């Protein structure tokens, strides 16, 4: 085992603080990476504070971070796809059974036996649980290591590893494209990538926000209209007009107000994961035979496809680069929807 500097929380009420964790020795299939950048996802905040206690309780100490871009510094003998010095990336997953139907389809996030998340999941190598990217180094199975397009700024690539794939995957799955009206709810880390991808796929994009000060940015990022969702007079004209709605909200909100906006037989997909269950009125779904669905991150193959798509189209996240010492402040701002539009930690600040 190798000691590595990290930032961790020791309980659900503790702030993140400097600590030391152990990383495993390289197996023959492992890649070791010096982490350069790690995005701050709202899921990090949910898990540090144990807000998903009912479905995914947090083990402490918790080292969050699953939007990782780094430099390869070590290779197992059987690694074939990377060489020392390469830029590489890791997203939300680091292991899975590799044999079940979703794994064979490279949709490892839906693994039926053992989807291992980048942090807070049982770790078969150490017997403990996994630690994420708010750290100096990470060791990962080559299968979960991704290639970073050379033409993109690596700091702005980091958020693609969760916010990017989590929005790209459902938009692809539900085949949104030209001629369709697509709604994106909430302009945060996920939402701003959702707007960029829906626009890149040729849709008419409408952004729903609770923050009137984000109207200009919504239009700049690719929405043709921005609706302030608290204003009923802005919502009503859109009733029954949407082909697809992607709900990226991190807190409790009225999902029925968006189901109402769908056309008959169309889908609202939840990707936000608020602490408490949402209330859904059956009648909103019944009349119109509408569908309420969900989507989790995306598999390795689709994540690579998304990164390559971003390379080809010059798409990256809008970020605020912070030293790790400011991460608790960043969490406070995240809770106030005050980020444009993803905090990314510069891990040079942890090494300094
Ligand atoms: P974020 O950057 O904090 O963005 C969330 C946005 O939701 C805010 O910017 C805000 O947008 C809106 N919002 C916040 N509180 C609200 C409220 N009370 N009512 C209505 N709108 C509100 O978070 P994120 O990192 O994008 O993550 C969003 C959610 O997705 C989190 O729950 C996260 O855990 C989840 N997630 C899920 C997956 C998955 O696999 N499905 C992957 C990653 C993250 P406006 O200011 O525009 O209203
Ligand atoms: Zn995430
Ligand atoms: Zn599996």
Explain how this protein is built:
The longest helix is centred in the last third of the chain and has 14 residues, at 300-313. 47% of the residues are buried. The chain has helices spanning 42-48, 101-104, 154-157, 163-173, 189-200, 215-221, 232-235, 256-259, 282-286, 300-313, 327-335, 348-351; strands spanning 2-8, 17-23, 30-40, 68-75, 87-90, 93-95, 116-117, 137-141, 146-147, 181-185, 204-209, 225-228, 242-247, 262-270, 291-294, 319-323, 342-346. Helix 4 packs across helix 5 (189-200). The two termini are 22 Å apart. It has 352 residues and is an alpha/beta fold. Helix 6 links the parallel strand 11 (204-209) and strand 12 (225-228). The strands form four sheets. Strands 3, 4, 5, 8, 9, 16 and 17 form a seven-stranded mixed sheet that branches. A six-stranded parallel sheet has the order 12-11-10-13-14-15, covered by helices on one side. It has a two-stranded antiparallel sheet with strand order 1-2. It is built from twelve helices and 17 strands. The structure holds NADP nicotinamide-adenine-dinucleotide phosphate and zinc ion (2 copies). One zinc ion binds next to helix 2. Residues 41-43, 46, 162-163, 166, 186-191, 209-211, 214, 248-251, 253, 271-274, 295-297, 334, 337, 339 line the site of NADP nicotinamide-adenine-dinucleotide phosphate.
């Amino acid at each position: 085992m190798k000691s590595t500097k990290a930032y961790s929380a020791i309980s659900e009420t503790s702030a993140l603080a400097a600590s030391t964790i152990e990383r495993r020795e390289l197996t023959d299939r492992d890649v070791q990476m010096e982490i350069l950048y790690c995005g701050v996802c709202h899921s990090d905040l949910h898990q540090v504070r144990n807000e998903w206690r009912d479905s995914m309780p947090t083990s402490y100490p918790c080292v969050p971070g699953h939007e990782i871009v780094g430099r390869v510094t070590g290779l197992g003998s059987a690694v074939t796809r990377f060489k020392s010095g390469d830029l590489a990336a890791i997203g939300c997953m680091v292991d899975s059974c590799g044999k079940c139907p979703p794994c064979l389809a490279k949709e490892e996030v839906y693994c039926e036996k053992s989807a291992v998340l980048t942090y807070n999941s049982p770790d078969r190598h150490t017997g403990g649980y996994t630690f994420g990217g708010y750290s100096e180094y990470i060791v990962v199975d080559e299968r979960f290591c991704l290639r970073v397009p050379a033409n993109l700024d690596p700091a702005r690539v980091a958020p693609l590893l969760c916010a990017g794939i989590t929005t790209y995957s459902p938009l692809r799955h539900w085949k949104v494209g030209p001629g369709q009206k697509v709604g994106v709810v909430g302009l945060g880390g996920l939402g701003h990538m959702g707007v960029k991808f829906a626009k890149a796929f040729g849709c008419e994009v409408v952004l729903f926000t609770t923050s009137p000060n984000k109207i200009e940015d919504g239009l700049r990022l690719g929405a043709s209209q921005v609706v302030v969702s608290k204003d009923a007079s802005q919502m009503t004209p859109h009733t029954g007009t949407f082909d697809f709605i992607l709900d990226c909200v991190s807190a409790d909100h009225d999902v029925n107000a968006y189901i109402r906006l769908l056309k008959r037989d169309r889908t609202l997909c939840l990707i936000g994961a608020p602490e408490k269950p949402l209330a859904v009125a059956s009648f909103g779904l019944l009349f119109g035979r509408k569908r309420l669905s969900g989507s989790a991150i995306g598999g390795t193959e689709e994540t690579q496809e998304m990164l390559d798509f971003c390379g080809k189209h010059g798409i990256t996240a809008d970020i605020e680069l912070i030293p790790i010492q400011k991460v608790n402040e960043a969490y406070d701002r995240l809770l106030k929807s005050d980020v444009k539009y993803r905090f990314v930690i510069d891990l040079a600040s942890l090494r300094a």
